[in-house]
Design a protein that fits this description.
The complex is a heterodimer. Chain A is an all-alpha fold. Chain A is built from 4 helices and no strands. Among the domains of chain A are: about 1-70; about 75-100. Chain B folds into 2 domains: about 25-145 and about 250-310, Four Helix Bundle (Hemerythrin (Met), subunit A) (Up-down Bundle), CATH 1.20.120; about 150-240, no CATH class. Classes of the chains: A mainly alpha, B alpha+beta.
Chain lengths: ~140, ~300
């Protein structure tokens, strides 16, 4: 509700066209940025591409929630009670992507250490054992 | 056209659950609970997509989406992202028709609601059909499964070897993806390049230019020309195993939402046509509620599309 029938019809049409155009732009960025189209003339660094596509997708999500789902015309409290909890996901994304990178770091570390050839006559020393520890030969 | 306001309705039904005098957030019980259900569903999907991100970040390489998703019905290979873009448009358009159905409901236009809901159902069914084709191609022709991922990505440069084990002019480029073909498979299967792998190869054999494992996957051999391993002969390995499971579970979970959405749309459309909601005189609120759900399915697809196909 909130506005007249003719007005809402117009909003629906405008929103769908906007979403369609943004989708096309996103796909063009994904393809042009990696040099699939335009003869590679519009190649861009991955972080610029990804940032653009993420921003556009979030804008699409905002349009869907605001216009299609009519959230923009609901009571403020309703909107906040639904939208504020999703802010937790910002933490979720940051934390788990960092965790994923840590897994990679650990795996690389193991691969690297496995490739180091150990000498046969290796004797434990240094901080691992106290100086007066007897090592069985 | 003149309908009671929500407050009047609540006041007129003293036995109703939502009878505290005025409805919280000026919304009906059903609509508010639909919002909170969608919020919880958003967290489920977010959990899946975040798991995808964490696993992707933990791998040295990941299949490149515009290589994996480049087949199109009848047009074959080399159409990166075209088909999934079409799927996105189908779903977006069904969201538009759903919004129109809700608007017709507000002006109590029964036939309008049925028409636009019917178009929405067609859109949902078309999307499911597209997804069925996508899955069939991946499973049937490209041999991807929950536990097998034949899509890998090179992490170092090199050159492929020919049947005698000599270097060819075909380059291995770091960051580019490949698909492990299977023996005997025709090259009409999509991802069309003739990768030089012969049809005469047999499973379980080692050739100068490729190793064929017991299941018949051809791992082409190449000579590394850069990096610390320069000079070594290596073979193409399977890609990150988690890719198949993540893809099928996440798009499958979304597809299941679409499927249940279509089922509920069908039920509610039949109810609308039977005149059930005319008597309720609440501006076809049931259509509005299923509409919220349907738009949410579209909303989730925006992020599935971003994470799986664009990034």
């Amino acid at each position: 509700m909130g506005h007249s029938y003719e007005k809402s019809k117009k909003i629906a049409l405008q929103t769908i066209i906007l979403l369609g155009v943004i989708t096309i732009v996103e796909v063009l960025i994904a393809l042009a940025g990696k040099g699939h189209i335009f003869g590679g003339a519009l190649r861009m660094p991955w972080y610029i591409m990804n940032l653009l596509m993420i921003v556009l997708s979030v804008y699409k999500a905002y349009k869907i929630v605001y216009e299609f789902m009519h959230m923009g015309y609901e009571v403020r409290g309703l909107a906040l009670s639904v939208l504020l909890p999703t802010l937790l996901l910002v933490w979720g994304v940051i934390a788990f992507l960092q965790e994923g990178s840590a897994w990679k770091g650990r795996r690389d570390n193991i691969t690297e250490r496995n490739s180091i050839e150990t000498e046969n006559s290796y004797k434990p020393e240094g901080m691992l054992l106290r100086n007066d520890t007897k090592v069985l030969e | 056209m003149a309908t009671e306001t929500l407050e009047q309705q609540v006041a007129n039904e003293p036995g109703a659950d939502w009878s505290g005098g005025k409805p919280p957030f000026k919304a009906s019980y059903g609509k508010l609970m639909m919002w909170y259900f969608l919020l919880s569903d958003a967290f489920t999907f977010a959990g899946f997509l975040i798991a995808y991100g964490a696993l992707r970040f933990s791998m040295p390489s990941w299949p490149v989406p515009d290589f994996v998703f480049q087949t199109f019905p009848f047009l074959g290979s080399h159409n990166p992202l075209l088909f999934v873009t079409l799927m996105t448009f189908v779903l977006l358009f069904s969201s538009f028709t759903m919004m129109r159905a809700v608007q017709e409901g507000h002006r109590e236009n029964k036939n309008g609601v049925v028409l636009w809901m019917f178009l929405t159902i067609l859109g949902g069914a078309a999307f499911l059909g597209c997804q069925a084709w996508e899955w069939t191609t991946l499973i049937g022709h490209e041999n991807m499964s929950v536990t097998t991922n034949p899509f890998g990505t090179h992490t170092e440069g090199g050159v492929y070897l020919d049947a005698e084990g000599n270097e060819t002019s075909e380059l291995v480029v770091a960051g580019e993806s490949y698909l492990l073909h299977t023996v005997g498979a025709g090259h009409d299967e999509g991802h069309g390049d003739d990768h030089g792998a012969g049809h005469a190869m047999e499973a379980g054999n080692d050739y100068p230019n490729a190793y064929v494992d017991e299941r018949g996957f051809i791992h082409r051999k190449y000579k590394v020309t850069e990096g610390p391993d320069a000079g070594m002969i290596k073979k193409e390995e399977f890609g990150p195993k988690a890719f198949g499971a993540l893809f099928f579970f996440i798009t499958g979970f979304h597809g299941f939402h679409v499927l249940s959405g279509v089922a509920f749309l069908l039920i509610i459309m039949i109810n609308v046509a039977s005149g059930l909601y005319v008597r309720r005189r609440n501006g076809y609120e049931m259509v509005e509620k299923i509409g919220l759900y349907w738009h949410f399915v579209d909303l989730v697809w925006v992020f599935v599309f971003l994470v799986f196909y664009l990034l």
